[in-house]
From TrEMBL:
Pathway(s) annotated for this protein in UniProt: Pyrimidine metabolism; UMP biosynthesis via de novo pathway
Family membership: Belongs to the dihydroorotate dehydrogenase family. Type 1 subfamily.
Reaction catalysis annotation: (S)-dihydroorotate + A = orotate + AH2; (S)-dihydroorotate + fumarate = orotate + succinate
Keywords: Cytoplasm, Flavoprotein, FMN, Oxidoreductase, Pyrimidine biosynthesis
Signal peptide annotation: none
Gene from which the chain derives: pyrD
UniProt EC number: 1.3.-.-
Cell location: Cytoplasm
Protein name: Dihydroorotate dehydrogenase
Location of the Dihydroorotate dehydrogenase catalytic domain: 3-291
Length: 310
């Protein structure tokens, strides 16, 4: 029995990796990830220039997960691109997360990556909910289609999209119809559920400072929504477009459920932040135990095979 998997023809020890934004802001954090049991890693989403991000407190762990309004703090695209270029012969599979604060900056940043010697995967983040005044791109279907049309007029390297959660079957249908028009490597479902609110009842106060306390939700709160998005896009997208499942992963069972819904890889956010990189060994062991109990010998035995009730 094995939890090995293949992505873009590259064999990974397991389907697990960090979610962008968690444990991937600095070289030290990314090196710790690279030395961990994780099968792959992704960088913090980069803008062209360094960003300090939103004022603190901007991330809080709460009983059923987390709330964050980090505000896209990052060291700038060159920092993460240089990190990946320097290590791309040692690390099996690298994911470089990128966005821009404007349409033109997004195009500029992707042109920078295209012009580089970077051989890894680019994750285009269409779903950051926490930059004040900036809506989540992927909730604007026309803008998404316009951006992807321009990007794929020049971008030839492997490209995936980080999508926000959708909550309407019609939106799954509309978005999948757009995505199926492009040679995407994958879609990553889901980013945090944007603009939630967590209250400290004793203080009768919000818990994060930015945006009056509104922030992206992660953790147990969002697993049912994450699984639904993985399943919905797995059912609708061309098989050539893989699905990465993100959201609510804390145990090996959560990993199993994401793969059952159709995920090829599974990212860990809140629980990684709370437990540290040791979580990957625990998740692999728990996933192997579930596969053993069910008689599965590889991920393909159950990947995408969620049954419905007839
Ligand atoms: C890249 C910005 C994001 C952020 C952030 O930096 O605030 N938080 C999220 O939950 N998702 C994001 O995509």
């Amino acid at each position: 029995m094995t939890v090995e998997t293949s992505f873009l023809g590259i064999t990974l020890a397991n389907p697990l990796m960090n979610a962008s934004g968690v444990h991937c802001m600095t070289v030290a954090e990314m090196d710790e990830l690279a030395q961990s049991a994780a099968g792959a890693f992704v960088t913090k989403t980069a803008t062209r220039d360094y960003r300090a991000g939103n004022p603190q407190p901007r991330y809080v762990d709460v009983p059923l997960g987390s709330i964050n309004s980090m505000g896209l703090p990052n060291e700038g695209l060159a920092y993460y691109l240089d990190y990946c270029l320097a290590r791309q012969n040692q690390q099996a599979l690298q994911f470089l997360s990128v966005v821009g604060l404007s349409y033109d900056e997004i195009v500029e940043n992707l042109r920078t990556i295209e012009a580089s010697d970077y051989q890894g995967v680019t994750e285009f983040n269409l779903s950051c909910p926490n930059v004040p005044g900036k809506p989540q791109i992927a909730y604007d279907f026309e803008l998404t289609e316009r951006l992807l049309t321009e990007v794929f007029s020049f971008f030839t390297k492997p490209l995936g999209l980080k999508l926000p959660p959708y909550f309407d079957i019609a939106h799954f249908d509309q978005m999948a119809a757009i995505l199926n028009r492009f040679p995407l490597t994958y879609v990553n479902c889901v980013n945090s559920i944007g603009n939630g609110l967590y209250i400290d009842v004793d203080k009768e106060q919000v818990v994060i400072k930015p945006k009056g306390g509104f922030g992206g939700l992660g953790g147990d709160y969002i697993k049912p929504t994450a699984l639904a998005n993985v399943r919905a896009f797995h059912q609708r997208l061309n098989p050539s477009i893989k699905i990465i499942g993100t959201g609510g992963v804390r145990t090996g069972q959560d990993v199993f459920e994401h793969i059952l819904c159709g995920a090829s890889l599974v990212q860990v956010g809140t629980a990684l932040h709370q437990e540290g990189v040791g979580i990957f060994e625990r998740l692999v062991a728990e996933l192997e135990a579930i596969m053993e109990a069910k008689g599965y010998t590889c991920l393909e035995d159950f990947q995408g095979k969620l049954r419905e009730i007839n």
